[in-house]
Amino acid sequence: MPLMKSWVDSANDANHPFPLNNLPYGVFSTEGTEPRCGVAIGDMILDVTAAEAEGLVALADYPLFDVPFWNELMEEGPAVWAALRERLIALLSEGSEERTKVEPLLVPMESAELHMPFAVSEYTDFYAGKNHAFNVGTMFRGPENALPPNWLHIPIGYNGRASSVVVSGTDIRRPWGQLKSPDHDRPAFLPSRRFDIELEMGAIVGTPSDGPITVQEADDHIFGYVLLNDWSARDIQAWEYQPLGPFQAKATATSISPWIVTKAALDPFRCDTPTREVELLDHLKDCGPMLYDIELEVTMAPEGKPATTIARTNYKEMYYSSAQQLAHHTTSGCPMNVGDLLGSGTISGPTKDSRGSLLELSWGGKEPITLDTGESRSFIEDGDTLTLKGAARGDGYTIGFGDCVGKLLPALDDPYER
């Protein structure tokens, strides 16, 4: 599919993340206004709440965009999702007869503040990237025991905290927790010393389910995708994770990019999951290309200094797709809700410079990385800003997500002080 031309000139740049082919969904405000739903088109945001109020967008007998989140649209189902996309393309395409009505509803991106694009119902994070799982397992158990016995059969995951999911640009506070060094008999309550990121994609459930669903049904239920940073306190995790897995180590924050890129926008970039080393059981078998060719990048910038790209990888490196993760999640009869968020797990490639976490990049702190500034890092230091970037490259156009940014603030001197 080639670039779709828009009368919004900036949307026609081959390298711009928000062409007419994309039309991602977000929530924005401007000075003196309340947050409202918007669609990114080039350097502008179409105020969809206003467009609905003026009758330019009419998808139901009742308003869908009178609230500052996209869950109301999700609840209408895939047919309405498709109808909105079709209508937006008609309004914004080159030669649109309705340009004069739409143009006053455009807001410059530079003057807008972006907010959480949807209300997160529940959050589950997976451990579904093989390179990452192998690297971490090798560090702690050796290469011969790197993958747990179940790993090639099911996408492993844990239930996280929806309350700690935040939008890009939100500062992250270094957490306190129980830490135990190998040379100490007892743990101590201290700020985390090994704070880390995990480069992930997040899939948003748009259709509820109440019982097991197939992989194909799961793919149909996914509304769209965001970049996701699963901030991780590795030292807290090392002490707490046996026998039930991550808990407080993952509860500080999970950052997501501000724009929901719809499945329709990503369809041209579908690709297959890797060749299976062990045949999956029937209910998890692949039923078509359900991963996406999305280039991913992580940068780190010490406070007041330029950023260094520390990793480059691709979403197609995943072993399990989001559809397989969602289908597996439902096998026990677990209901899934509109607005549920599924983290893919860390997306690492096969080379050192494609590892999606500092734990891997520094090999547990034993091999610090060197930034362009000359400074070295094993884990994140106070004042560092981490940025996740993602883009799919089409024929004369780019599908972008908007950066996922977070700056690490120092731990509180007393976490209980009010």
From TrEMBL:
<dbReference type="GO" id="GO:0006572">
    <property type="term" value="P:L-tyrosine catabolic process"/>
</dbReference>
<feature type="binding site">
    <location>
        <position position="250"/>
    </location>
    <ligand>
        <name>Mg(2+)</name>
    </ligand>
</feature>
<feature type="domain" description="Fumarylacetoacetase-like C-terminal">
    <location>
        <begin position="124"/>
        <end position="390"/>
    </location>
</feature>
<feature type="binding site">
    <location>
        <position position="254"/>
    </location>
    <ligand>
        <name>Mg(2+)</name>
    </ligand>
</feature>
<dbReference type="GO" id="GO:1902000">
    <property type="term" value="P:homogentisate catabolic process"/>
</dbReference>
<dbReference type="InterPro" id="IPR036462">
    <property type="entry name" value="Fumarylacetoacetase_N_sf"/>
</dbReference>
<feature type="binding site">
    <location>
        <position position="230"/>
    </location>
    <ligand>
        <name>Mg(2+)</name>
    </ligand>
</feature>
<dbReference type="GO" id="GO:0046872">
    <property type="term" value="F:metal ion binding"/>
</dbReference>
<keyword id="KW-0460">Magnesium</keyword>
<keyword id="KW-0479">Metal-binding</keyword>
<keyword id="KW-0106">Calcium</keyword>
<dbReference type="InterPro" id="IPR005959">
    <property type="entry name" value="Fumarylacetoacetase"/>
</dbReference>
<dbReference type="InterPro" id="IPR011234">
    <property type="entry name" value="Fumarylacetoacetase-like_C"/>
</dbReference>
<protein>
    <recommendedName>
        <fullName>fumarylacetoacetase</fullName>
        <ecNumber>3.7.1.2</ecNumber>
    </recommendedName>
</protein>
<keyword id="KW-0828">Tyrosine catabolism</keyword>
<feature type="domain" description="Fumarylacetoacetase N-terminal">
    <location>
        <begin position="21"/>
        <end position="117"/>
    </location>
</feature>
<dbReference type="InterPro" id="IPR015377">
    <property type="entry name" value="Fumarylacetoacetase_N"/>
</dbReference>
<feature type="binding site">
    <location>
        <position position="230"/>
    </location>
    <ligand>
        <name>Ca(2+)</name>
    </ligand>
</feature>
<dbReference type="InterPro" id="IPR036663">
    <property type="entry name" value="Fumarylacetoacetase_C_sf"/>
</dbReference>
<dbReference type="Pfam" id="PF09298">
    <property type="entry name" value="FAA_hydrolase_N"/>
</dbReference>
<feature type="binding site">
    <location>
        <position position="346"/>
    </location>
    <ligand>
        <name>substrate</name>
    </ligand>
</feature>
<feature type="binding site">
    <location>
        <position position="141"/>
    </location>
    <ligand>
        <name>substrate</name>
    </ligand>
</feature>
<dbReference type="Pfam" id="PF01557">
    <property type="entry name" value="FAA_hydrolase"/>
</dbReference>
<feature type="binding site">
    <location>
        <position position="125"/>
    </location>
    <ligand>
        <name>Ca(2+)</name>
    </ligand>
</feature>
<dbReference type="GO" id="GO:0006559">
    <property type="term" value="P:L-phenylalanine catabolic process"/>
</dbReference>
<keyword id="KW-0585">Phenylalanine catabolism</keyword>
<feature type="active site" description="Proton acceptor">
    <location>
        <position position="132"/>
    </location>
</feature>
<feature type="binding site">
    <location>
        <position position="241"/>
    </location>
    <ligand>
        <name>substrate</name>
    </ligand>
</feature>
<feature type="binding site">
    <location>
        <position position="237"/>
    </location>
    <ligand>
        <name>substrate</name>
    </ligand>
</feature>
<keyword id="KW-0378">Hydrolase</keyword>
<feature type="binding site">
    <location>
        <position position="200"/>
    </location>
    <ligand>
        <name>Ca(2+)</name>
    </ligand>
</feature>
<feature type="binding site">
    <location>
        <position position="198"/>
    </location>
    <ligand>
        <name>Ca(2+)</name>
    </ligand>
</feature>
<comment type="pathway">
    <text>Amino-acid degradation; L-phenylalanine degradation; acetoacetate and fumarate from L-phenylalanine: step 6/6.</text>
</comment>
<dbReference type="GO" id="GO:0004334">
    <property type="term" value="F:fumarylacetoacetase activity"/>
</dbReference>
<feature type="binding site">
    <location>
        <position position="127"/>
    </location>
    <ligand>
        <name>substrate</name>
    </ligand>
</feature>
